[in-house]
Structure formats: structure tokens, C-alpha cells
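From the methods appendix. Each design record in this collection lists the discretized structure first, followed by the designed amino acid sequence. Records were kept in a plain field format so they could be parsed without special tools. The example shown here is representative of the layout used throughout.

RECORD:
C-ALPHA CELLS (264 positions):
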């Protein structure tokens, strides 16, 4: 018996890093899962791995039509929707405001916010009605950058801070029918990519020289997370039996970033 037996979830950005770890954990806990992502090859590989426990949808979270198609496909395939997990995001490779060329600032802002904020809102809007029917929940992936400076550049940190307000407002608007919560991972060894064209030095997170060691040394628990380290929080928040009174809450999964000691 799993914690999510009989439940159905939809996960965006579900083919890599934390997203695919959530999908695998949900399936292990008894859930059926719709998986939305842009990479058709990665979606096919996940479908072959997990079989009829998942249905895959190729789409772009910045487009309303694609989000609606993902919700509709999940409901049509599995008969219901209990949890919507918004997880797709792009990074900004720690780029400071004064390092962004003025002529690129507006375009870069719009592209990053379209994925990291607008994509969450579009998915949430499309999921409202089936979640009302199931008395379900929404779970949003944040970051320690939603609470502290220095975990990214100006665009990424600003976008993640915006999501804190989004969770609280959605929890207020959608109660009592839908619970709305978040998980705030710290530094994680993932292939998360940065916005194209913003920083010439940009590489995926897990390819930054020294990143894993520096991230581990920055927190009291002295290790960087693997994607699987966060998945239990997503299971808990999706479980109707074990978190039925939890809403407007964000679980920190960051190795104790708030209590890190000063250098020296």
C-alpha cells in the first residue's frame, strides 16, 4: 500500500532532475501520473520505463492550450486529477542586473517569467475544475531562492519570491476545495538549464566546476541534495490522509540554509 494509492497527478517539467524523481516516487506510492515536458525523447524514455502508470504530453508550459491539453489528457486517461505539480523552470546562471545588457533585459525577463511564473499560473488555472471535483491539491516547486538572496541572479530570485505570494493567494482563493502548497529545495545536483542567451558562461547546474562541493559546504547538513531527497515532501503534501489540513504551506528542503553559520 502506497501513500497515493488510487490518486492521479500531473507533473510539469517531469522528465529531468526533481521532476522525473517526483514522477517515479508518485508511481512507487501507487499514483497514476500525467507527465508534461518539451523533450519528446525524454518523454518516450519515461513512458517505456514506467509503462501504463504514466501518460506523457509534449508541450510548452508557457502556452495555455498546452497546459489545458495536459490536464485533459491526464483526466481522459486516468479518470480524475488529484494533484497538480508545477515544476518546470529555467535558471539565470547567477546573472546580476548590471551584467544584463539593457537591450536584452526586457526579453530575458519575459522569457524567464513566462516559464517560472506564468507557466505555474496557466497550469493551475487549467487544473482548477478537476481538482475541485476531487478535493485535491496543487504543489509548486520553489527554491531557497524564494526566501534568500544569492541562490541565483536577479531574474531567478525575483521570480521565485513571486511564487511565495502566488501560493498564499491561491490557497486563499481556492479554499476550501483545493489545498495549495509548495516545496522549497536547496542546491540540488540536476541538469537544470539556464535561459539561452543571457550569460555566455552558462552551463547546466551539475556541470558548474566546484558547484556541488561549494553547495554542500554552505549548509549545516554538509551535503548537496540529489533530486530524490525532496520527493517525500511532494508525497506528503499530495496525500489526503496525511496532510488534509495543510494549505498555504511551503516545506523547506535545503539542508538548513536558514541556520548556516557565518564564514570564519
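DESIGN:
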Amino acid at each position: 500500500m502506497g501513500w497515493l494509492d488510487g490518486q492521479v497527478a500531473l507533473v510539469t517539467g517531469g522528465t529531468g532532475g526533481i521532476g522525473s524523481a517526483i514522477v517515479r516516487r508518485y508511481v512507487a506510492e501507487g499514483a497514476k501520473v500525467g507527465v508534461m515536458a518539451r523533450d519528446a525523447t525524454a518523454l518516450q524514455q519515461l513512458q517505456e520505463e514506467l509503462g501504463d502508470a504514466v501518460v506523457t504530453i509534449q508541450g510548452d508550459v508557457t502556452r495555455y492550450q498546452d497546459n489545458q491539453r495536459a490536464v485533459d489528457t491526464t483526466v481522459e486517461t486516468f479518470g480524475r486529477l488529484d494533484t497538480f505539480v508545477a515544476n518546470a523552470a529555467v535558471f539565470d546562471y547567477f546573472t546580476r542586473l548590471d551584467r544584463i545588457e539593457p537591450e536584452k533585459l526586457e526579453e530575458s525577463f519575459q522569457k524567464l517569467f513566462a516559464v517560472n511564473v506564468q507557466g505555474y499560473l496557466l497550469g493551475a488555472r487549467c487544473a482548477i475544475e478537476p481538482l475541485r471535483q476531487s478535493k485535491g491539491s496543487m504543489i509548486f516547486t520553489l527554491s531557497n531562492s524564494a526566501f534568500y538572496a544569492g541562490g541565483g541572479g536577479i531574474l531567478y530570485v525575483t521570480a521565485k519570491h513571486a511564487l511565495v505570494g502566488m501560493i498564499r493567494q491561491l490557497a486563499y482563493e481556492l479554499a476550501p476545495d483545493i489545498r495549495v502548497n509548495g516545496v522549497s529545495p536547496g542546491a540540488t545536483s540536476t541538469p537544470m538549464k539556464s535561459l539561452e542567451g543571457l550569460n555566455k558562461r552558462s552551463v547546466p547546474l551539475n556541470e558548474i566546476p566546484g558547484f556541488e562541493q561549494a553547495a554542500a559546504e554552505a549548509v549545516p547538513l554538509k551535503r548537496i541534495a540529489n533530486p530524490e531527497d525532496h520527493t517525500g515532501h511532494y508525497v506528503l503534501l499530495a496525500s489526503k490522509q496525511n496532510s488534509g489540513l495543510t494549505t498555504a504551506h511551503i516545506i523547506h528542503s535545503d539542508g538548513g540554509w536558514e541556520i548556516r553559520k557565518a564564514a570564519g
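APPENDIX NOTE: Strands lie at 8-12, 32-37, 54-58, 83-86, 137-141, 179-185, 249-253.
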